[in-house]
């Protein structure tokens, strides 16, 4: 008796290369938009925690991340302090960034493999494809990442007099009315070129992040399927996602710290001439361990995020008729 074909094979339809790429973009974009909105509170908490150290006089408690989280919840409320800041911007970012980096990943990976004669789809091929697709995605969306960081830096409980009572800018009026206002003010006050402020560390961070993501996820799937450990399905997708989260967060956290601080610096009144100066300042004043500040919420966000994001991505691929990522 012939074994039944896997469910994704039955749903897979023959498609031209351009159609495959478009469908893969929408599968990844829809998954990115959905998961980014759900897990935004962890991202917001991570960025606020990273930014505290860049403002010596910030009215926030010294101590652990748990104490900082409790402080925000008590002073601002869970929704206002941890969930709401830059939520809409995050959802838009999830759609376009995930759509671009994973929409392009498989075609770029296969092209690199063909050029190298890499029939086994090696880890270096996966990492290179993840790095290249990530670099394009994060460079293109850099203005929106800066918008998110500035909105989060400007977050806090607003008093009746229009002055922030809590947050990193407590005692000052709020700078921005929303994402569009952030972009407008950057262009009007700093020049259009400053929309890409911090694009270099952000792109490096995003490229490394996506290289780790791609290598951890695709590599885990490839090894498990090749050795017959787990069949391609939900269990494998979740397992590969957790592995990918650990690798990508460890590789990208230093870039993440520099990128977030540099992009938020104007909002907080801190001056850095360049991302390199920002990195040197962190190393000099806080030591090397500061580059891994926020790793726990970074991983704490990405492990469950990827465990939802990648299975969603795989299922959207099946629904669109292109099957699981091979």
Please, could you describe this protein's structure?
With 326 residues, this protein is mostly helical. The chain has helices at residues 7-11, 17-52, 65-76, 78-83, 87-116, 123-140, 142-153, 179-190, 199-226, 234-268, 275-286, 295-319. Helix 6 packs antiparallel against helix 9. Mean pLDDT is 89; it is low at 1-12. It contains twelve helices and no strands. It has a single domain (15-319), classed as Mitochondrial carrier fold, CATH 1.50.40.10.
Give the number of domains: 1
CATH 4th-level superfamily: Mitochondrial carrier domain
**Helix-strand topology string:** HHHHHHHHHHHH
Terminal residue distance: 26 Å
SSE arrangement:
Layout: H1 7-11, H2 17-52, H3 65-76, H4 78-83, H5 87-116, H6 123-140, H7 142-153, H8 179-190, H9 199-226, H10 234-268, H11 275-286, H12 295-319
Helix pairs in contact: 2-5, 2-12, 5-6, 5-7, 6-9, 7-8, 7-10, 9-10, 10-11, 10-12
Task: Give a brief description.
This protein is mainly α and 326 residues long. 71% of the residues lie in helices and 0% in strands.
Descriptive labels:
326 residues; mainly alpha; Mitochondrial carrier fold; 12 helices; disordered N terminus
């Amino acid at each position: 008796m012939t074994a039944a074909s896997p469910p994704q094979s039955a749903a897979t339809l023959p498609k031209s290369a351009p159609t495959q790429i478009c469908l893969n973009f929408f599968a990844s974009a829809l998954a990115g938009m959905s998961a980014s909105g759900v897990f935004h509170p962890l991202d917001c908490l991570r960025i606020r925690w990273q930014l505290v150290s860049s403002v010596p006089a910030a009215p926030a408690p010294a101590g652990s991340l748990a104490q900082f989280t409790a402080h925000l919840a008590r002073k601002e409320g869970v929704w206002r302090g941890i969930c709401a800041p830059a939520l809409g911007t995050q959802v838009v970012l999830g759609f376009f960034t995930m759509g671009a980096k994973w929409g392009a990943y498989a075609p770029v990976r296969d092209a690199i493999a063909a050029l190298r004669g890499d029939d086994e789809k090696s880890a270096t091929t996966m990492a290179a494809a993840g790095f290249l697709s990530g670099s394009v995605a994060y460079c293109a969306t850099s203005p929106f990442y800066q918008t998110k960081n500035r909105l989060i830096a400007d977050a806090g409980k607003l008093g009746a007099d229009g002055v922030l009572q809590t947050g990193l800018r407590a005692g000052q009026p709020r700078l921005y009315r929303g994402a569009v206002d952030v972009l407008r003010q950057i262009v009007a006050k700093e020049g259009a070129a400053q929309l890409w402020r911090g694009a270099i560390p952000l792109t490096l961070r995003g490229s490394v992040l996506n290289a780790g993501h791609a290598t951890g996820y695709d590599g885990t799937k490839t090894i498990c399927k090749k050795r017959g450990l787990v069949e391609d399905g939900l269990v494998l997708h979740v397992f590969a996602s957790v592995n990918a989260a650990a690798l990508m967060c460890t590789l990208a956290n230093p870039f993440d710290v520099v990128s977030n601080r540099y992009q938020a610096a104007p909002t907080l009144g801190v001056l850095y001439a360049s991302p390199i100066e920002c990195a040197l300042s962190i190393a000099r004043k806080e030591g090397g361990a500061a580059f891994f500040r926020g790793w726990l919420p970074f991983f704490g966000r990405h492990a469950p995020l990827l465990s939802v994001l990648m299975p969603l991505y795989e299922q959207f691929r099946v629904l669109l008729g292109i099957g699981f990522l091979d």
